[in-house]
Amino acid sequence: MGFDNHLPTRRELLVGSGALFAWSQMPRIARAEGRDPRLLVVVLRGALDGLGAVAPVGDPDWVGLRADRALVLDGKPPALPLDSFFALNPAMPNLHRLYKGGKAAIVHATATPYRERSHFDGQDVLESGFTKPGATASGWLNRALLAMESGGRVDPRGSRALGIGSVTPLVVRGSAPVMTWVPQKLLPASEDTQNRLLDLYQHTDPKLATVLQARMKLASLGGAPGTGDPMSDDPTLMPPGIARVRAYFAEAAGTAARYLAKPDGPRVGAMGFVGWDTHIAEGAASGQLYNLLGALDGAFAAIESNMGEVWGETVVAVVTEFGRTARINGTQGTDHGTGTVAFLIGGALAGGRVIADWPGLKPAQLFEDRDLKPTTDLRAVLKGLLRDHLRVEEKVLADAVFPGSADVKPMGGLVG
Fold first, then answer.
1. Dist. CA 165–CA 173, nearest whole Å
2. pLDDT in tens, 4-18
3. What is the CATH number of the domain that holds 291?
4. 0.85 surpassed by pTM
5. What confidence tens digit (pLDDT) does each residue in 198-215 have?
6. Which of 222, 239, 377, 398 is exposed most, by the fewest CB atoms within 10 A?
7. PANTHER family of this UniProt entry (predicted)?
């Protein structure tokens, strides 16, 4: 990890590919209540298979839908029971422990308003807070901070704009000042990620696309790292095996938590983890998805331990741009879908429950006969956390943070 210690000051925002933070000063109303809340947003880029993460084992159509790929309570390994209907992927014992202790909750069959299946557009809607992609150059987290400042609830003195390393994610772009932090060692981009970046640049920056394409060709001719199974445990394969992925997730998340935990550090932040685009050989019970969820579970443990005594005032929201198809495809993976899950953890949560208006898994109940139908608007979850945990006003949430969402009421009761 690298950080230039002479640059950051109090109340600055720390952001980067490993972690992204916002102003250290929280709303005065929260401080007046004797609270000092923290909020960390984790974006899983690539679209998470919510059914592979949290299985509806009580649904009579579940096993028929995925056959021997369905997580079940008596499987090998067995899914971890959450309640009488849902069970957690066995790769996530830390999340299961937090859930049983009332410090984690899961929102199932959730999605943003986006109903197409483009990663770039889906992440734009997820991070901008608008209903359509390309509507704004700012993110909902940045606008929430700006609204608090304009209402006299944030002291912005000493803050300044700073960018180091990778491009600032949309969720925090805007008028509120930002600064960046980037791990010294980043995981190399997978072939899929490189190809999707190439496609993006071909539409937005043809000259950069030409350079990137030439670099990719040179790397392939030179036998450069980039071949092999990215989820392999063999440390000689590149991209790095899952052991390095686990280490990276834990280190980035742990560093984020350490900055949030500092008495004079930031109080709000976000970070992203890539790799969730499981089109081929997904492997919910043993394989790519299982390994990624295990790495995320390790990140949860790192956050909890590094938050220390302020864990009790912490909420972490884990979100993704959309879900994946309900059925397994011909290459034993899942394609771009709609409904998925959001994970919530933290000592400030009123957890120990799966929140779901379950849509069912019969063909007629699926969205467009292929996806888990979303029944909970993810904006309701985020608005509930911002309102009840950070004390952002409801009108500000509807008008400025998530414009056009007046009919999407903040979900209550998420925090204790």
1. 15
2. 333 333 233 333 333
3. 3.40.720
4. no
5. 555 555 556 665 655 555
6. 222
7. BLL7424 PROTEIN, DUF1501 DOMAIN-CONTAINING PROTEIN
